[in-house]
Amino acid sequence: MSETTKPAPTFATRNAADPAFWDERFEQGFTPWDQGGVPEEFRQFIESRALCRTLVPGCGNGWEAAWLFERGWPVTAIDFSPQAVASAWRTLGPAGAVVQQGDFFAFTPQQACELIYERAFLCALPPAMRADYAARVAQLLPPGGLLAGYFYLGENRGGPPFAMPAEELEALLAPGFERLEDRSSAAPLPVFQGQERWQVWRRRG
Ligand SMILES: C[S@@+](CC[C@H](N)C(=O)[O-])C[C@H]1O[C@@H](n2cnc3c(N)ncnc32)[C@H](O)[C@@H]1O
Prior knowledge:
The chain has 205 residues and is an alpha/beta fold. The protein has one domain (15-27, 37-203): Rossmann fold, CATH 3.40.50.150. The chain has six helices and seven strands. The chain has helices at 19-27, 40-47, 63-70, 82-92, 130-140, 166-173, and strands at 54-57, 75-79, 99-101, 115-118, 146-152, 177-184, 196-203. Helix 1 packs across helix 4 (82-92). The mean pLDDT is 95. The structure holds S-adenosylmethionine (SAM). Residues 22, 33-34, 57-61, 78-81, 84, 103-105, 119-121, 124 line the site of S-adenosylmethionine.
């Protein structure tokens, strides 16, 4: 059957807080959020910095984590969906060693991380979990630590991906973090409708 006549996938699970939701989508190869490579703003950001211990939560296929690993960065990438982890291992070859199964809200890195990379993870969480996300990133990063990546901003019209008004992100992160960078993503994926922004936040002391 050609791509054009392929029926739309159907899914049994609707709760994005359940790993089974993501398992189904990875099993069926339905991953419209997956860039299949390393986005430009992230590449430039990393190339301008010294190595630092990095955590990639909700990594999916983990392209960026594999790229960091190949550059010699100390990186750990986690995903709570067994099928996402299996997909990353199949996709990344030896660099897949940096990907492990874990729930961001329960996982503690062996060594404290200094950078958390965000891509399509916060917007994958049901909105009721956003405060827990902000608390967890603040807990995991020391003063001066960075939360950097892509944030899907706009009116919330359901999801995932769940867009978030810019003021809500500000209210969520500003108590614990100072924003250092904020610009449109140069090459947004269609699923994010041009509303992804590259931002860097520094943990307050
Ligand atoms: C939209 S996908 C994004 C994957 C990847 N960051 C990317 O950009 O391709 C969201 C991912 O977050 C994972 N996820 C959701 N909640 C999680 C949690 N509490 N802990 C770890 N991973 C989680 C899902 O299994 C899924 O692979």
